[in-house]
Amino acid sequence: MRNTIHTLSYYGVFCVKVTLSIIKADVGGWVGHSACHPQLLGRARALLAEAKGAGLLLDFHVASCGDDLELILSHARGCEAREVHELAFNVFRECTGVAKGLKLYAAGQDLLSDAFTGALHGLGPGFAEIEFEERKSEPVLVVMADKAAAGAWNLPLFKAFADAFNTPGLVIDPALHDGFIFDVLDARDNRVFSIPTPQGIYDLLALIGATGDYLVKAVRRKDGEVVAVTTVQQLNKLAGRYVGKDDPACIIRCQSGLPAVGEVLEAFAFPHLVAGWMRGSHAGPLMPCAVADATPSRFDGPPRAVCLGFQLADGLLGEPRDMFADKAFDSVRAECLRACEYMRRHGPFEPHRLSPEHMEYTTLPQVLKKFAKTA
Prior knowledge:
This protein is α+β, with helices and mostly antiparallel strands. The chain contains 8 helices and 19 strands. The chain folds into 2 domains: 1-133, 2-Layer Sandwich (Alpha-Beta Plaits), CATH 3.30.70; 136-354, no CATH class. It is globular and about 65 Å long.
């Protein structure tokens, strides 16, 4: 049954299936859209510590990327468990109160309702969850982005799970030869295509190259085991305006029949262009950086990505490693800054500014109304 503790027997040993969730929201920026205030992080930690003490959670970690508050939770209640989602919603609501007291910018902007309705769908926060039985060793990467749209993971997930030039394990390791299945969300028609690789690789590229319309929702092994999940909640369009934000996150399992940690990280060694940046309406390079450097400022950017590595043990997260803090990514960051200079010189012209249908804060209809009166 959903929302109950999931258990199974494995070689006579009583085991618990672990659910790993990342739930994120922007509840107020410090200063502007640049960072998450320490008091928000502290309040979230205190509330999650109470939940862990009450037995709702196995473990938790509170992080931030830019102005987004990120809750990384391990529990044994399955995906989309009501009590876990309600906990996260209440954390964001409490932190919104703190943000309003500090007069933080756009306090509570990702909470589209004051009341929890049974699940987080449609309420503003983004979430990604994966349930699995822990392996003998369970390394997991949690990647989070700010000032980027949901399609930001299309390229790195393709490279990690389908590109042999990035992931030599696809060639060297027989356990990877069967390839993987990509679940791709058609954001326009709200349907999901399941595309196997390597045989469907060109079909996959035909879709996910359009990062504003087709989003990698999950990656599975051929036996159905989910190995990567992303937040794919889309913006809500009301009266010609977009409300809510993207700033996606993803969970990626590694090693032992899956891409190695280093192979997944290598997929982020190119600062590819993503939609987002200033006002959610510009294309810019995605910069992998340390958590301490995930404080976008120049033109509210450039877009940032951080990666925390966890070594799960009996459902406990333990201390995370800041994977993008490695100096090996210094040249990637330098290339990103060069790309910033090039893109910024376009000013308000495409392709730096997004096409109207993909702009997050679309005010062009209001501009056109001015001319309609005189036409």
